[in-house]
Specification:
Blueprint lengths: L1 H38 L4 E7 L8 H14 L5 E5 L2 H8 L8 H10 L4 E6 L6 H15 L6 E5 L6 H13 L10 E6 L8 H13 L3 E5 L6 H10 L4 E6 L6 H7 L7 H7 L3 E4 L8 H22 L1
Parallel strand pairs: 1-2, 1-3, 3-4, 5-6, 5-7, 7-8
Helix pairs in contact: 4-5, 6-7
This protein binds cobalt (II) ion (CO).
Length: 307
């Protein structure tokens, strides 16, 4: 007992020395970090990333989001990038040079941005979003990239997002719609596993409003599945709404276009009366509010990261 005590007394000065050395190393590290930050002052920015649209009418959606983001974050510079290379190439031929997310982030790094919140304006976590995740991760690891970079979720990522999206979509169905009239939400759809979000949305609608259907252009549920539902319920009139951020090519041509294979013409062929609503979801403020909340969460993660 006494032997152990004397040994611990003897060891005390040595452990104090170790502690002082550790503290010195820690302080030096902290000082050099502070110096590095002093050389490059913190600069925060927002990068909004949409799929893009070749149609000028789609601008209404982008302008609405842009205005809402700037109003919510008046002191933070806002920049844009577009994930669709097809759209970027198409617009480049018209002399409009849109940036890809990687190009925009490289520009922002060169402009001295040290903290960037990248906000996905996609609807589901599909191919465009997963590619964006990879781009953001790459920039996070570049030695001369952006020190702090966070990615905001698309419209629907969590179950809570899905529930909230279902509620706001229903709230934006035109009031003129009668009780026995159906609504078809036209989603994009994708072979990517993220397509399950459209199926989940159809399921959520079933309990909220059984006459609201989700159909997709390139995935499931298909238009034929929706047509079978309409037939079995003896529906006579349908409202067609895009479940896409912009009312662009898909809404104006595939949904409401004059070609015989547009949804509106196929449904008219089934004897249905059709009313197209040419508004992208990003034109509805309560939908934009979901993206804005996801941006706030990304900005909060930046703050937590910076401390
Ligand atoms: Co498309």
């Amino acid at each position: 007992m006494s032997h152990a005590l004397s040994r611990s007394r003897r060891n005390r000065p040595a452990s104090r020395r170790t502690l002082s050395a550790l503290l010195l190393v820690l302080l030096t590290l902290l000082a050099s970090t502070a110096l590095a930050h002093g050389v490059k002052p913190e600069k925060t920015g927002i990068l909004l990333v949409a799929f893009g649209s070749s149609m000028p009418q789609a601008q209404a959606s982008f302008e609405n989001i842009d205005a809402k983001v700037r109003a919510a974050h008046p002191d933070v510079p806002v920049q844009w990038a577009f994930t669709s290379h097809i759209i970027r190439n198409k617009l480049a031929k018209e002399g409009k040079n849109l940036l890809s997310p990687a190009q925009a982030l490289a520009d922002m790094a060169a402009q001295g941005f040290t903290r960037v919140a990248v906000q996905s304006l996609h609807t589901i976590p599909g191919e465009e979003y997963t590619d964006l995740q990879r781009t953001v991760a790459a920039f996070r690891s570049f030695p001369d990239g952006i020190a702090h970079i966070e990615l905001g979720a698309p419209l629907m990522l969590s179950t809570a997002d899905l529930e909230r999206t279902a509620d706001v979509l229903l709230a934006n169905v035109p009031k003129e719609r009668g009780k026995d009239e159906a609504v078809i939400l036209m989603g994009h759809g994708t072979p990517h596993p993220g397509n399950v979000y459209y199926i989940a949305m159809q399921e959520l609608m079933r309990s909220r409003d059984p006459l609201v259907f989700v159909g997709t252009v390139e995935g499931t549920p298909t238009l034929d599945q929706v047509r079978a539902e309409l037939k079995s319920r003896k529906i006579k009139k349908v409202w067609l709404m895009p479940f896409m951020s912009v009312a662009g090519d898909h809404a104006r041509n595939d949904m409401a276009g004059s070609e015989p294979d547009s949804w509106i013409n196929i449904l008219k062929g089934d004897g249905l009366q059709c009313v197209p609503v040419l508004k992208g979801t990003a034109e509805f403020d309560d939908v934009v509010a979901i993206w804005l909340d996801h941006l706030n969460e990304a900005l909060q993660r930046l703050d937590a990261d910076g401390k």
